[in-house]
Amino acid sequence: MSDETQTSGATERDYDYHTGPVTLRGSRVPASTTDQRLLDSGGSSEWLHTDPWRVMRIQSEFVEGFGALAELGPAVSVFGSARTKPGTPFYDMGTQVGRRLVEAGYAVITGGGPGAMEAANKGARDAGGASVGLGIELPFEQGLNEYVNLGVNFRYFFARKTMFVKYAQGFIVLPGGFGTLDELFEAVTLVQTQKVTSFPIVLMGTEYWGGLFDWLRSTVLDAGTVSRKDVDLLHLTDDVDEAVRIVTDAEEPVDPKYPE
What are the Polar residues biased-composition ranges (predicted)? Predict the structure, then answer.
């Protein structure tokens, strides 16, 4: 009795075919083995663009990121606009933030790009600290800025975002646009939903972020879509020393006998 049948022009095999954890039957059974296809020097290169191969690339990004940052020590992620120009008040603020964080014993992690990210990296490097840049593949980005002394480039945003959160004791957010807002609200959501251990989130620039705070504390809070506790996860200041102090104070354990 044959182990193959003909169905609508396709050959079906009457046995189970195991490829790793996957079981295939009937017309799903391939005509060649995985090893055979691996060792075959001919054929299309379309496999480079398949989802299983992407999984391997994603895995490699996590491995590289974890390996590069695992021994970094205490760090703070600093977000901000790539469009911030050198010599502007926001750029100078970013430089001060980077410098003061290093002086307080932290490495500085940014997206590695220009603007506010470059400013924070510059302050960190000039202060003799670890200046980390987590770059991302974008059609309009120029690569890591010159002040990064530890850089990792990513293809995938979600792998990069994991590194921002995993290795940081807090976030300091400089004025920025959609990318900065995305990073800010993702961080708040992770803390709010207790997906990460609570850590401080400080926004620098009361005039820039004031409208957002007013909207959250009025329209959003009044609508009941967030709680007062959620809004209080965010801190707003113009004072660099206060921003760093908020981060350092959050690391100090509270004696359970004498809670604040």
Answer: 1-10
The per-residue b/e assignment along 135-173, b for 16 or more CB within 10 angstroms, e otherwise, is bbeeeeeeebbebbebbbbbeeeebbbbbbbebbbbbbb
Q: Answer whether 89's CB lies under 8 Å from 121's CB.
A: no
| 87 falls within a domain | yes
> Per residue in 202-243, pLDDT tens?
999 999 999 999 999 999 999 999 999 999 999 999 999 999
Pairing of strands 107-110, 75-79: parallel
DSSP state, 217?
I
Q: Is the dihedral of CA 109, 81, 180, 230 positive or negative?
A: positive
Rounded-to-10 torsion of CA 171, 177, 182, 184: 20
Within a domain: residue 154? yes
Q: Specify the pTM.
A: 0.78
Q: Which residue type does 146 have?
A: E
**Range in 112-126, 128-142, 216-230, 233-247 the model is least confident about:** 128-142
CATH number for the domain harbouring residue 232: 3.40.50.450
pLDDT digit string (tens) for 161-186? Answer: 999 999 999 999 999 999 999 999 99
**Token representation of residue 44:** 């299309």
Separation between Cα atoms, residue 228 and residue 221, nearest integer Å: 7
Which domain covers residue 143, as residue numbers? 74-251
